[in-house]
Specification:
Blueprint: H1 13-19, E1 27-34, H2 52-59, E2 62-64, E3 67-68, H3 73-82, H4 108-114, E4 118-124, E5 142-146, E6 158-161, E7 164-167, H5 172-186, E8 192-201, H6 209-215, H7 232-258, E9 265-271, H8 293-296, E10 297-298, E11 300-303, E12 312-314, E13 318-319, H9 323-330, H10 347-350, E14 362-366, E15 369-373, E16 377-379, E17 385-387, H11 403-421, E18 439-441, E19 448-452, E20 457-459, E21 463-464, E22 474-475, E23 483-490, E24 494-503, E25 512-517, E26 520-525, E27 554-563, E28 566-576, E29 584-592
Parallel strand pairs: 1-8, 1-9, 2-12, 3-13, 4-5, 4-8, 18-23
Antiparallel strand pairs: 2-11, 3-10, 5-6, 6-7, 9-11, 14-15, 15-16, 16-17, 19-29, 20-23, 21-22, 23-28, 24-27, 24-29, 25-26, 25-28
Helix pairs in contact: 5-7, 6-7
């Protein structure tokens, strides 16, 4: 497939004139870690972990020294996929449907798909679960993994396979990597775009025994800047999960080599935020959720053996938001969509061709806090200015010594707030409030819609199984005044099959439940008990407070209901409760019938 080449930036004209047009479009593989800190890798100087396969991407390519992502998961993923600040596109949280990228946005996958690439995503999506927010509607031909945020099952997990839930065998990262390898083999003749968003080292603290064995008794000799809050076993387990991840990266790199496509494959590796516990991170202040340096600095390694000069480090600041313009430029793929990008093409830096690189301000926000980073300074969310060259640990503000820079950056923050939110002082902090946008249902091209508890609202005495909505289920359904509510937008009026994933204690069998939507009603009986124990095979360490212990749910076929099109509340309530409770509910599945 021959394409006419257009240089991405004038700074690359000389280099690309000698290179000529790309005769064979490059494949692209993107690895995205979940909650791994900059300091979790041996390439960063960690002497207690061994990450040779991940390190090899830097050694055979380029390392970005100051690469910034968002403080938490879904915002980073949104910025990577769109090249735009997540605040522009409706991504306000990490659960309760707040993580969805607005439908007016276009993604990196859509660009590669439009260019004729086979596209697949295998792992944690975290930018929308229902069509048309689903990855299969955002540019991917195949999807396997969990579209929600953190997942409660790491061993033999229940995962989504192109829209349907399937029980798998093995460790979640190994299982998703297996599917990525199958995709690469199937599309070895290329070109392909393979996105592998890993689930680890995000909690729950669960590592394969073979990986945990190396760390479980290891003395921790490299410490967090905040040693009083470091939990040694959390550090050990995180590093065990990172080493498992490294093994899986090695499997993919070996497959590229085996198939003879290694030299013409762009490989990218980075993480979505800072470390999810206090552990060694190069002395930087902050961890996941923080808008300080340690909460947002990530490794980023890019290699393309046939094209990108190997073995150099880029010191200019950059971020996940820059990857869309960079990857499309490298592969000569036309971007889909015309909204202004916030990211910029890093090709001149990769190719060592940039004589000049203009100054840049990188903004980050989370829970109402905003910070800005320049090449030399950071203004934190309290207005403290730090010289990041002289004081990379953010120990001493320099506002008094450098008032002009502090004032300039405060003005930049105020302007950015106005551009994103229309004001300068308060940014909404939605927390766990269910997103106001309705759940989309009823598309002929994707007739099965999964509606999890995490996206619904508990009313009356109903509660979530844990504080964190992701992977939670509804419990404490004991009264006819209780209900579970999902705001739906039904695209296609018609008949839908209704299935509820439930558990019910045997003495409580017999409740009558009713599902309603815009005047339509469907009643059914919880006629079989199912009260399985909580899983005991999931955790290496005790599960953090606020995360649900999982169990096996069964399907209750409620029947069929006629749904009108439009927006309305889907309400599940009980009309008769002969026992102490009705049932626990993990998910409703609505299937549009032909």
């Amino acid at each position: 497939m021959q394409k006419k080449f257009t240089p991405p930036l004038l700074g690359c004209l000389v280099f690309f004139a000698s290179l000529g047009a790309i005769a064979t479009p490059p494949n692209v593989v993107v690895f995205l870690a979940d909650d791994a800190g900059w300091g979790d890798y041996s390439f960063s100087g960690n002497t207690q972990t061994a990450t040779p396969h991940i390190d090899s991407i830097a050694q055979r390519g380029v390392s970005f020294d100051r690469f910034f992502v968002s403080p938490v998961c879904s915002p980073t993923r949104a910025e990577f996929l769109t090249g735009r600040y997540h605040s522009r596109m409706g991504v306000t949280g990490t659960s309760a449907a707040q993580e969805r990228i607005d439908l007016s946005e276009s993604t990196l996958a859509e660009a590669f798909q439009a260019a004729g690439y086979a596209t697949g995503a295998f792992g944690k999506w975290h930018n929308g679960s229902q069509w048309p927010y689903h990855p299969l509607a955002r540019g991917f031909d195949q999807y396997f993994g969990h579209p929600a945020g953190h997942w409660g099952e790491y061993f033999d997990p229940l995962l989504e396979d192109n829209g349907r839930m399937v029980r798998t065998e093995g460790y979640i990262v190994d299982v998703c990597t297996d599917r990525a390898l199958n995709f690469i083999e199937e599309n070895a003749d290329g070109p392909f775009f393979c996105y592998v968003p890993f689930t680890t080292p995000h909690s729950p603290w669960a590592a394969p025994e073979s990986d945990w064995a190396r760390f479980k008794d290891m003395p921790i000799t490299q410490r967090s800047y905040n040693t009083m809050r470091e939990v040694d076993d959390h550090t050990r387990c995180a590093w065990a999960m990172v080493e498992n991840q490294d093994m899986n990266v090695g499997r993919v790199l070996a497959k590229l080599d085996e198939l003879g496509v290694d030299d013409n494959t762009i490989v990218v590796y980075f993480s979505d935020n800072g470390p999810n516990s206090y552990r060694w991170n190069g002395g930087m202040k902050g961890r996941k959720g923080s808008t300080d340096e340690g909460g947002m600095r990530s490794v980023c390694y890019i290699r393309w053996p046939s094209t990108i000069p190997a073995g150099h480090t880029i010191t200019q600041i950059s971020g996940a938001i820059d990857l869309l313009p960079t990857l499309t430029a490298l592969a000569e793929v036309t971007r889909v969509g015309d909204k202004p990008l916030d990211g910029r093409d890093l090709t001149p830096l990769l190719m060592q061709e940039a004589a000049e690189w203009p100054g840049h301000q990188h903004f980050s926000t989370w829970k109402g806090r905003v910070t800005v980073r320049t090449q030399t300074h950071r203004l934190d969310d309290d207005g403290n200015l730090y010289d990041m060259i002289a004081d990379p640990g953010q120990t001493t503000p320099v506002n008094a010594a450098q008032p002009q820079i502090a004032a300039e950056l405060q003005g930049a923050v105020d302007g950015w707030r106005r551009a994103m939110f229309g004001q300068t002082k308060t940014i909404p902090n939605l927390g766990q409030t269910v997103d106001a946008r309705p759940i989309t249902v009823g598309y002929r091209e994707f007739p099965v819609t999964l509606i999890p508890a995490r996206d619904g609202e508990a009313r009356g005495g109903v509660e979530r199984s844990a504080r964190a909505p992701n992977s939670s289920y509804f419990v404490n359904w004991t009264s006819k005044d209780d209900s579970m509510v999902w705001l739906l937008d039904v695209n296609t009026a018609g008949r839908y099959n209704v299935m509820v994933e439930y558990t019910c204690k045997l003495p409580d069998v017999g409740s009558t439940v009713e599902l309603s939507f815009k005047g339509a009603r469907l009643a059914g009986t919880v006629d079989q008990g199912w009260d399985p124990p909580l899983y005991t095979n999931q955790d290496t360490l005790p599960r953090p407070t606020g995360e649900s212990q999982m169990k096996e749910f069964r399907a209750l076929e409620l029947g069929q209901i006629d749904l009108a099109s439009g927006v309305g509340e889907l309400v599940l309530r009980a009309t008769d409760i002969p026992g102490d409770s009705v049932m626990d509910v993990r998910r409703i599945t609505l299937t549009l019938l032909p």
